[in-house]
Amino acid sequence: MKTFKRTPEEKARSRIMLRRVLKYIRGRRRYVALSLICALASTACQLLVPVFTGRAIDAMLGSGQVRFDAVIGAAAYILGFTVLSCAAQWLMSLSNNKTVYGVSRELRDAAIAKIQRLPLKYLDAHPAGDIVSRITSDVDTFADGLLMSFTQLFTGVLTILGTLGFMVAVNGVIALVVVALTPLSLFVAAFISTRTYKYFNAQNAARGEQTALINEQITGVRLIQEFAHEEASLAQFDEVNERLRDASLKAVFFSSLTNPSTRLVNNIVYAGVALTGALGAVFGGAHLTIGQLSVFLSYAGQYAKPFNEISGIVTEMQNSVSCAARVFELLDEEELSPEADEELKQAGSVSINDVSFRYVPDRPLIDGFSLRVAPGQRTAIVGPTGCGKTTLINLLMRFYDTDSGSICVGEQDIKQVKRSSLRASYGMVLQETWLKNATIKENIAYGKPDATDEEIVAAAEAAHAHSFIMRLPEGYDTVISADGGNLSQGQKQLLCIARVMLRLPPMLILDEATSSIDTRTELLIQSAFSRMMKGRTSFIVAHRLSTIREADVILVMRDGHIIEQGRHEELLKQNGFYAALYNSQFEAV
């Protein structure tokens, strides 16, 4: 099995990660201090127990008569120190939990807040499952590693220093034997831990990819079954799962070597102490009593045990640091451009001035695009797939910023106003529906939480959703899941339309808003839209050209440019690209 050593760059990144983690911990200094004090108290109590155990043994040997008073006194001390040690450990655990899970909560809060500030280009380029994996499982793994370091690292270091001090006080020669064998444990732990980081890193990356794939296959299971793609989907999952298995096996293999390897070294140390101490006690050169030898053996065991635990912590920390790196990678992503302070003063007219935009630097999409839309004008945007229709909507809403040129609403450049102020002026219905896990009523009132029941019902009636809502088990109080539960795609779209009709902002964007609705309901919705759009600046993206005949102006886009514009009748008379598109929808197949 091939092994890897961490590069200087990886080591530097690990140090940076640890420093960033410490910044989160600094806000919980009181709990850390209390944990240290408890660790010190618990370790001190545990180190004093062997002393009184040795005294009790000596009180039962040597004189031919057991000194019960000394034995009982030693037993009382042992009991007292044991109880104090347990109490200190309990309090230390509380402090550690407060620290670790507080940091975990703060990291998740920061990650969720970060997502709200990320541009759509990041979210469009990264699978949702991978982002979810970073916020959930990676933070959990990081918290587990941090908790282990708190609970075992503090006490382990203190135990090593304390036992070493006691051993030197009892017998310096035997203590020297212990110290001489100590580097073996350190070497074994370092050798193993340096080879686990890369595998833990690969494991976490594969786990994120697997989570994204599972999410994709669950949400798209109907499509998978429709195209009989089950075998290919399983093969894809098996490939990712195999990479996760391979990385996990290698990470677990090397991390599992830590415990038996360090235990072997610890047993060598214990055997060395036992042999040296026994020879000294038998021949008298070491001036050890049997009780003192038992104390020394107890300390040798306590001294060696933390090395085993610390080496395990170091290995676990490799996984923890790898997970922390993935979380911090998300937190370090470039955010949206700085927010302006100015509110949008007047919504209505829209002017697009020589705008250029591309998703990929070397693939132009919109180039030198200009447009003037008067207040209250209905503007339809049509064209073949990929011509830039939805991209134009993204630019109007500032989901993406232009590469050059400007977009103004009223007299204000939209980059100079608050995004929330701009977006509050738009009502948007998309082809892709979005609902939250809540009641029908709460979903309709999403854009206007203070709406009355009467307003919600009126909006649903205007969207022709009231009748099917009333057929649901609890009517408007029926709870639906985020994917709409048992609602049809058309019913979900009607709820989204009702959501916009409730708020009625001064500008509207309808991007294939009736694509999933039957023809009869679509006619009713178009009538409702006509009333809703009266006096409101509206942008209508549609493939079904029969739905945009009444638009004030129709823009025909191709390759990011407007190639034709005018009213429906005018464009048909031109017998150009629009006429060809329109007629193609009515030709016999």
Provide mean pLDDT, rounded.
78
Give me the side-by-side strand order of the main sheet.
Answer: 6-9-10-3-11-12
Count of distinct structural domains: 3
Using the 3D structure, state the CATH architecture of the largest domain. Up-down Bundle
Number of strands: 12
Portion of residues in helices?
A: 55-70%
How much is the radius of gyration in Å?
35 Å
Give the CA-based shape: elongated
Secondary structure category: alpha/beta
Give a quick account of the main beta sheet: strands, pairing sense, barrel closure: 6 strands, mixed
- State the CATH superfamily name of the largest domain: ABC transporter type 1, transmembrane domain
Which CATH class of the largest domain is shown? Mainly Alpha
What is the fold named in CATH at topology level of the largest domain? ABC transporter transmembrane region fold
The end-to-end span amounts to 62 Å
Q: Return residue spans where pLDDT drops below 50 for at least 5 consecutive residues.
A: none
Strand portion: 5-15%
Number of helices: 19
